[in-house]
Amino acid sequence: MSDTSPAPAHPAPLVLDVWCELQCPDCRTALDDLRALRERYGDRLELRLRHFPLEKHKHSFAAAQAAEEALEQGKGWPYVEAVLSRVEELDRKGEPFLVEVARELGLDAEEFDTALIDGRHILIVDADQAEGKAIGVTGTPTYVIGGERLDGGRSQEGLRERIEEIADRLLAEQPA
User: Fold this and answer.
1) Is the pLDDT confidence value at 14 over 80?
2) Which residues pair with 20 in a beta bridge?
3) How far is residue 152 CA from its own chain's centroid?
4) What would the pLDDT profile of 88-110 be if each residue is shown by its tens digit?
5) What interhelical angle do 109-118 and 95-104 show, nearest 10?
6) Which helix (H) or strand (E) holds 47?
7) Are 141 and 135 a contacting pair, CB within 8 Å?
8) Cross-strand bridge partners of residue 148
9) Residue 17 main-chain phi, psi, to 5 deg
10) How far apart are CA 107 and CA 100, in angstroms?
11) Preceding peptide of 141 cis, ω within 30°
């Protein structure tokens, strides 16, 4: 007689929405916090990139689309980190820089170029931005975890600790 009982289900990871803009120096500063959170929680915490391009940064909308293409090609966060770590180059070079970073990471640069031209990711970026506005996001980075919004656009002081407090509480409440 075979055992047909389902394998024990792992609790779904906790989701941390990270409203981000790839031409934003504050988002670059936030990378250290995101790395620390990833290290602390591993696969118990899903960092979900959400786009909130700001009008004052003329390449941010294209960068958001490029990040979606990187996600599709399996290297979303490495791409985001690579672009954010070189914000000044994005300011100077614009869209060609986005394709250059894709090439450096071994992604299909031609596909990036095509994606930026055909606009295949615009709807995702627009939807994120609309949702962000609806929940009161005004700047980046902004985090949402467990229904609580934390604004890092003004100050990131103490934000990681606050995210950890919320995450620890929510994870402790999950059924084992």
Assistant:
1) yes
2) 51
3) 14
4) 999 999 999 999 999 999 999 99
5) 150
6) strand 45-51
7) no
8) 145
9) -80, 125
10) 10
11) yes
